[in-house]
Amino acid sequence: MLKRFFILCSGVDKDIVQNCSDGEQNKYAGIGATVFFTAVMAFLAGSYALYTVFDDYYVAIFFGLIWGSLIFNLDRFIVSTIKKSDNFMDEFIQATPRIALAIIIAIVISKPLEIKIFEKEINTVLLKEKNAMALNNKKEVANYFQSDLDKNKAQIDSLKSDITKKEKEVNDLYAVYITEAEGTAGTKKLGKGPVYKEKREKHDASLQDLTTLKTTNQAKIADLEAKAKTLQADLDKKVSETQPIIDGFDGLMARINALDKLPWLPSFFIMLLFLAIETSPIIAKLLSPRGEYDFKQEDKEMGIINVIAQNKYQSELQRKTDAEIYDKVYEDIKDDKELYDYKKKGAMELLKLQADGFVEKQKKSM
């Protein structure tokens, strides 16, 4: 049963191959098995490739079955249309476009399987790329908010600087009136005289201004710091919103590009393996001598060609014979008086009707 199934996969005429020897049947069963297992590999490759696109097992399996069936049909067609002859060059020219198609199919099938085989290495490459993308994304988002953050920080620093300057001014005035009271500077008179009082009042006024400035600036600083937190929160939100896009950077195209960044030799040999599998039925047919099946198939085709040629010749001969008979018949009846009178009568009636119709049209137009 398995042998019959593989023979069916090879695309041969089952009525012919059943009458061939076991060796001939085994040859085509082997070719059919290659076609079948190539289709199975195409199904696996197509399912995996589409799973990386849709992330859905059922969709991937459905389209994988369609892809595997398509490859099976193409391979079966390629093998079944190569016919053996006595001229190898004619066979090779006949097989050239089929070999080219087989090469394309082999490359298409091998690429998704290469991606699956080297999945761990590809994931490492993708991880590095994702990390680099995350860093670049964070820098770009930070650059977008940087001007607002810098402006906000500059305003806070300016307000703090104003407070610091005012505090220095108050401290200096404090030192002035203290040294005046001690008699170590200013008028150098010990005690709290008029000058001391004047300097003390100036210090107290400046201290009051400092208190007011601190209250005003600290309120402004609090607002600016709240704004800075909002800006930072927006920055973090923007980064977190774009991170899922980076995390999802592992589709089919990304994996193919990552595969290209790995050493090419292992991937090349896997492609060669599938190329050998895909082209092996064609090459086997080209290199094998004409077998029992080929002779019987040619004999059957020649029989059909002969029947068609004979039918065509008989049809042409019948056409010519009928034409000659009718020519003779018409020649014999051409001078028949009865037929002449009958034709004349019909022609006269037709002419009368045409004349009457013409007169009626003329009357209507007047």
Question: Care to describe what's here?
Answer:
This protein is mainly α and 366 residues long. The chain folds into 3 domains: 2-118 and 262-290, no CATH class; 127-250; 307-365, no CATH class. It has 11 helices and no strands. The chain has helices at residues 2-10, 14-17, 22-54, 57-80, 88-117, 119-182, 194-247, 252-260, 264-287, 292-333, 337-365. α5 packs antiparallel against α9 (264-287). The longest helix has 64 residues, at 119-182. The two termini are 91 Å apart. 17% of the residues are buried. The model has no long low-confidence stretch (mean pLDDT 78). It comes from Flavobacterium ponti. Pfam families: DUF4407 (PF14362). The chain crosses the membrane at residues 28-51, 57-74, 95-113, 264-287.
Helix and strand composition category:
mainly alpha
Pattern of helices and strands: HHHHHHHHHHH
Put simply, the count of helices is: 11
- First-residue to last-residue Cα separation: 91 Å
| Rg on CA atoms, Å | 50 Å
Number of strands: 0
Query: Kindly state the mean pLDDT as a whole number?
Result: 78
Number of separate structural domains: 3
Profile the largest sheet: none
Shape: elongated
- The low-confidence runs, each spanning 5 or more residues with pLDDT under 50, are none
- Percent strand equals under 5%
User: What portion of residues is helical?
Assistant: over 70%
Strand and helix layout:
Layout: H1 2-10, H2 14-17, H3 22-54, H4 57-80, H5 88-117, H6 119-182, H7 194-247, H8 252-260, H9 264-287, H10 292-333, H11 337-365
Coiled coil: 149-176, 214-241
Transmembrane segments: 28-51, 57-74, 95-113, 264-287
InterPro entries: DUF4407
